[in-house]
Design brief:
Number of strands: 8
Strand content: 15-25%
Shape: globular
Low-confidence stretches: 1-5, 77-95, 111-117
Order of helices and strands: HHHHHHEEEEEEEE
Number of helices: 6
Structural class: alpha+beta
Mean pLDDT: 76
Number of domains: 2
Strand order of the largest sheet: 5-4-7-8-1-2-3-6
Largest sheet: 8 strands, antiparallel
Radius of gyration: 19 Å
Length: about 260
C-alpha cells in the first residue's frame, strides 16, 4: 500500500470501518486514530475506491474443469453453509470476525493483489446464495437541494440484493481541489451499524466534471437490506483530506 504503513491492528480497523463492521469500542478506537492522524481519511477513501475496483473487475468464467469442481463442491452436503457477514446488534458475538477481517483487509490493503478469478468465484458464490430467495425491489432516492438557489439533482439507485448502486449527478458546481462531495447514508439512532456522531455512514466520495455531472457505479452498505433502517440519503461538501469528518450540513437530501 502506498503512503504511510500502519500496524496490522490499525489496518484491520481501517478495513472494518470501510466495511461498516466495527464494534462500538473499535469505532471509538478508530476515531481516536483519525483525530491523531487526519491522513487516515485519505486511506479510507482510497480503500473504498480499491474495493469498488475489485468488484468492478470484469467477470471471466473459469476453465470448465475448475467450474465443474466448484459446482461439485458447492453441491456436497458436507460443505459448510455460506455465511454473509452482517453488521450485528451490540453485544452479539460474531464468529471468526478477525479472520474474515484479515481476508477483507488483504483485498483492500493489497489493492488488487487477489486475481480476478478469485474475485469472480466469490461474487458468483454470493450470487448463487442470494438467488435462492425472492429478489428485493430496487430502491431509488432522489435528493433535493436544501437551498432553492441550487439547481442540481442527485439520484441514487440501489439493488438491495447485490448492494450495488448507480450514482447520477447533474448540475452540481465543480469544487476546488481541496474539497470533495460526499454521499452519506443516515440510519436510525438505534440501528446496529457503525456510524458517525450524526448517525451517518460514509457511502461514496466523488467529484463532478466541468459541467457538474457524474454517472458512477457504487457499492452501498448492508443497511440498505434492512427496510426502515435508512432514514435519509444526503450529500455534503467536505475537506478532501478528511471527508469522514462530516462537518458540513446537507447540500442535497432525501428524508425517508
Amino acid at each position: 500500500m502506498a503512503g504511510v504503513m500502519h500496524s496490522e491492528e490499525l489496518q484491520l480497523l481501517i478495513a472494518g470501518y470501510v466495511l461498516c463492521d466495527l464494534s462500538p469500542e473499535e469505532a471509538t478506537q478508530f476515531e481516536q486514530q483519525l483525530a491523531a492522524d487526519p491522513e487516515l481519511g485519505l486511506e479510507v477513501a482510497r480503500l473504498q475506491q480499491v474495493l469498488e475496483s475489485a468488484y468492478d473487475s470484469p467477470e471471466v468464467a473459469p476453465p470448465a474443469h475448475l467450474r465443474d469442481a466448484l459446482l461439485s463442491a458447492y453441491e456436497k452436503p458436507s460443505r459448510p453453509a455460506l455465511h454473509v457477514v452482517e453488521s450485528s446488534p451490540l453485544g452479539r458475538q460474531r464468529p471468526d470476525r478477525k479472520g474474515w477481517w484479515r481476508a477483507a483487509a488483504a483485498v483492500l490493503i493489497g489493492g488488487l493483489s487477489i486475481s480476478n478469478y478469485v474475485l469472480w468465484q466469490e461474487l458468483q458464490t454470493l450470487r448463487i446464495a442470494s438467488s435462492t430467495g425472492p429478489a428485493a425491489a430496487p430502491l431509488t432516492f432522489s435528493l433535493q437541494p436544501t437551498d432553492a438557489a441550487l439547481a442540481a439533482s442527485v439520484t441514487v439507485a440501489v439493488n438491495p440484493d447485490t448492494l450495488e448502486g448507480t450514482l447520477t449527478v447533474q448540475d452540481l458546481p465543480p469544487l476546488p481541489p481541496n474539497q470533495v462531495y460526499v454521499l452519506w447514508t443516515v440510519v436510525a439512532p438505534d440501528a446496529p451499524f457503525t456510524t458517525d456522531e450524526k448517525d451517518a455512514i460514509l457511502t461514496q466520495v466523488f467529484t463532478v466534471d466541468a459541467e457538474g455531472d457524474l454517472v458512477e457505479d457504487i457499492l452501498v452498505p448492508r443497511v440498505y437490506r434492512d427496510q426502515g433502517t435508512v432514514t435519509a440519503v444526503a450529500v455534503t461538501v467536505e475537506d478532501a483530506a478528511a471527508p469522514q469528518q462530516h462537518v458540513a450540513p446537507p447540500l442535497l437530501i432525501e428524508r425517508l
